[in-house]
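Typical record is below.
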Amino acid sequence: MGEVNVSHEELKELAGAKLVGAGLSLQQAETVADVLVHADLRGVRSHGVLRTEHYVRRLDEGGLNKNPAFSFEQTGPCSGIYNGDDGLGHVVAKNAMEEAIKLAKQNGIAMITVTNSSHCGALSYFVQQAAQQGLIGVAMTHTDKIVVPFGGAEPFLGTNPIAYGFPAKHHKPIILDMATSNVALGKILYAREAGTPIPDGWGVDEDGNSTTDPHKVNALTPFAGPKGYGLGMVVDIFSGLLAGAAFGPHISKMYGDYNKYRKLGHYVSAINPSFFTNEEDFLNGIDGMIEEIHQVKPAEGFKQVFVPGEPEQLLEEKHLEEGVPIPETVYHYLRSE
């Protein structure tokens, strides 16, 4: 199976059209497509337009609300609850971060839990929202069980990603977006789609043994053993239990029960640096940190030391000029009537 290079504009149009065809409003479809293409541009193919077919299936079978009535309840000067009414998580998380940004600009910080949501895509998109407004952004979400706990032979937690975004004065923001598993499940799915093997240590089979065949993966492993396991549990508490949602093995499956709402929770936060220190000094300090990191002597086999998110930003610049590589099968689906 080959790949084709497609412009980001065409990808947004095609993905958006598929979602509109499944009954989503144009405004929501454009937001979802924007989040998906954001991931593809940054080389995070696992969360890109590859997922469009899945969302369309959920919309068709009733597992997503096509016309959600979003609502936000501010519960304190710096807190609130955003109700996604079982709509697409990309739209829900973006709206929740917008509310967090408003509160943080007014009162210094904001912590918002999200209820009744669904898969929201790459968290980097939402922390970047805050960073582009000069704020620090934080985002977490739980997912259905696919990761074995440290010392366990069967899955209990999800990949449970966490993301941070830090604004800079002149440089692009520092963006850390990572799963608490060794790898995101989407990368396994992409390998299945592309027909390629996966690195040893990414996943285990039904017997708990490491496998390089993406089709045999029954569960993923936490990164750094007990550290990734512990952080994954923290994410589940913040985005699940704190949001009044399920945890671990009680979270509904992404791939299954397509006619049922998933009721996922998220957690987003925005922090206004000006409430804690001189804003200009902070932004200039982030610039200085980035520049000094760049000056660190690279190890053998490396040309330069980057800050988190920088390799993805460089890929984004390349893909904006040259187009985004996607599997032919995905492109054919997006273009099909």
User: Anything to note?
Assistant: The mean pLDDT is 96. The CA atoms of residues 72 and 82 lie 4 Å apart.
